[in-house]
Structure formats: structure tokens, C-alpha cells
Amino acid sequence: MKALIVDDCQLTREMLGFTISATAEVEYAENGEEAIGLVRQAIAQDAHFELICLDITMPVMGGLEALRKIRDLESATGGTRATIFMITASSSPDDMIEAISEGECDDYLTKPVIGKTFKELLTKHGLLS
């Protein structure tokens, strides 16, 4: 599996990456703008990401905007649709509702992210057996 973890918190990036490092090639970005660049590069090389984890609140470009742009790129290029999990520290369900209904994310994680919960989502979406 090829995965992209996008979060402005280095600890969250490292924890998620460590959780899947045995079964995935993991790349990292600190904001949505960096993520879009990596997704474009992956599509150009026909090496699509199977999993993308996006923090909702980040500097430069937040996760919801990045999510929409990633889905637009996938549609425009006929590329493989990545499984996208949104990550939030917010206790408000409004962010998740928007991400799921308008942004087409596949699932979400709340911070602090627990490795077991992350693995359960991966299994649920067929990315981990």
C-alpha cells in the first residue's frame, strides 16, 4: 500500500506512519498544499496513493480544501480513487459531516489518534487484513 499522511503535527504524522510502516510505503506532508503536490506527482508517475490521511485544520491549506482538490484531480485524470480519512481534534461533528457529505472522505479519526482505532478503520476499508 502507498499512503500519504498530512498533518501539521509531527507527532501525529509519526504515530500514524509507524502504525502502518510494516505494510505501507508512507510519505508525509505538513499541509494541504504539499499534499496536493505529492498527489499530482503520484498521479503523473502512475503510482497513486491508496490511503490519504488529512488533518482538517492546518496552515497554508486545510484538509477540507485539500480533500476537494484531491477528488477533483482524481476525477480529471481518471485516476484511482484513494481512501481518505480525515483527522480532527475538534469535538464538533460539523467538520466531519461536511467532510463526509461534501468532501467525499471515506472515514475519520479524532485526536488523539489511537493506533488500534486506526488499524480498525484500515481493516474496515480493506486496506489491512
Automatic annotation (TrEMBL):
<dbReference type="InterPro" id="IPR052048">
    <property type="entry name" value="ST_Response_Regulator"/>
</dbReference>
<feature type="modified residue" description="4-aspartylphosphate">
    <location>
        <position position="55"/>
    </location>
</feature>
<feature type="domain" description="Response regulatory">
    <location>
        <begin position="2"/>
        <end position="126"/>
    </location>
</feature>
<dbReference type="InterPro" id="IPR001789">
    <property type="entry name" value="Sig_transdc_resp-reg_receiver"/>
</dbReference>
<dbReference type="GO" id="GO:0000160">
    <property type="term" value="P:phosphorelay signal transduction system"/>
</dbReference>
<dbReference type="Pfam" id="PF00072">
    <property type="entry name" value="Response_reg"/>
</dbReference>
<dbReference type="InterPro" id="IPR011006">
    <property type="entry name" value="CheY-like_superfamily"/>
</dbReference>
<keyword id="KW-0597">Phosphoprotein</keyword>
<protein>
    <submittedName>
        <fullName>Response regulator</fullName>
    </submittedName>
</protein>
